[in-house]
Amino acid sequence: MTAKHIVQTFTVLLALGMVAFFVAPAAAQTAADAWETWIDEQTDAALKSAGEIDETQRAEMRASIRSKFSTLAAELKKELASPPQTQDYAILQTVKELRDAYDEDYDRKHEDTSVRVSYTTGDTEIFAYDESIPLAEVDAKYPRDTWLQMLLDRGIAIKNADAYWEYLFLRDTLVHIERQPHVWTSGLFGISATEDWETYKTAYIERELNQIQKRLEEKGKRVIIFNDLSEKHHFPLEKHKDLEKILGDLPNLSTRFSVNVSKVPQTVKALRDAYDKKYNERYATTSGSFSWNRDDGSTVFAYKVPLPMSEVDKKYPRDEWLQMLLDKSISIDNFEEYWAYLSKRDTLVALEKQPDAWTSGFFGIPPTEDWETYKAAYLKQMIEKLHHNKEIVYFGKADVPEAIRKKVEDVEKQFKRHLQRPLLDR
């Protein structure tokens, strides 16, 4: 099986796990026609979700996808009288309808959910909270009806309970931020410093709504088909745990493959134009720490992220760093690679501040007290590790890592074996 075929096969399988259901045809159609229409609709949706496709292979891919949905339909017919249907979301786009549909679950989840949040810059914690706000207080501060109407006025469609939770829970974060005025002047989240709460609030809401929409779009691509079968049609999923496991494994692989081959020209300007905005957004919202320990548990090297971006860009200017990579014939074919290569600048900034690490022999680098010698060795190792050993994932490339190649083939085989077994034995 060629690598190219593997990526296509994976796309076919992934589409089966991601696609959403569509409303069945009118009642006047025969049952057979209804199922055929359902198969065609799922096939078209799956093909669309695959993204950029070589037009010379579209017909072959469609036939392969349709075959899998035909097999699935044959199994579903044994337990369902008509094709699966989902709620017509168009009728749930008024405040009352949304609240009637989702309020009860939201209230219960809010009561049961505790959140710990911490955003740091360097060694300084800028924004943090670890306590829940009573729902009555949130609703008083940002009335639910008014908030939902604001979302609807923006053309935002709330299609499920997850989306309802995401959009409404944003109100809790606003309450926390308002209590911490130093956040407004910190530049955190890429929002211009201000001492005026209303100005900050407007910018933060705008930013977060965009982020929520992106998260929901990505999550929507990985919705597993059997969730709806279980919840809306009482499909006996407990009889299908192995199939559920197979389908459930596909979304994890989806973050590691793409059929879209990057066409970004390998120049500093083109790379920055393509990836800088997303890099800056992720950088602003990334927090945590890295540490490297000896076998006895003692720490050799540690630092918190994010470091101040201005410090990193000043120490290792982005243009110069990218040109250095290009001069070494390094190609950067997607955002994850861009993130991985540029993030190594942060490690260097932190390493330079901790000379004990240079003499530790850690990372397999010979001990030295000379920073430039250590830095050169670290850069050489970093490039070899990221480029040659492919520890960053190559999206859409022909040289798919062998471990992932085998995983795709195994999933395909398990899926085929499962569909060949009698339904009641599953």
Q: Unreliable runs, pLDDT <50, ≥5 residues? A: 1-28, 86-91, 221-262, 388-402, 418-426
C-alpha end-to-end distance = 29 Å
Give the H and E element order. Answer: HHHHEEHHHHHHHEEHHHHH
Number of strands: 4
Shape: globular
How do the strands line up in the largest sheet? 1-2
Outline the structure in words:
The structure is a single chain. The chain is mainly α and 426 residues long. The chain has three domains: 3-79 and 236-259 and 401-425, no CATH class; 89-220, no CATH class; 268-388, no CATH class. 57% of the residues lie in helices and 6% in strands. It is built from 16 helices and four strands. It has helices spanning 3-18, 31-49, 58-76, 95-112, 135-141, 144-153, 161-178, 197-220, 225-233, 241-254, 268-285, 309-315, 318-327, 335-352, 371-388, 402-419, and strands at 117-121, 124-129, 288-293, 299-305. The strands form two sheets. It has a two-stranded antiparallel sheet with strand order 1-2. A two-stranded antiparallel sheet has the order 3-4. Strand 3 and strand 4 (299-305) form a beta hairpin. Helix 1 (3-18) crosses helix 3. The chain starts with a helix and ends in a 7-residue tail after the last helix.
Write the layout of secondary structure elements.
Elements (H helix, E strand, L loop, with lengths): L2 H16 L12 H19 L8 H19 L18 H18 L4 E5 L2 E6 L5 H7 L2 H10 L7 H18 L18 H24 L4 H9 L7 H14 L13 H18 L2 E6 L5 E7 L3 H7 L2 H10 L7 H18 L18 H18 L13 H18 L7
Helix pairs in contact: 1-2, 1-3, 1-10, 1-16, 2-3, 4-7, 7-8, 10-16, 11-13, 14-15
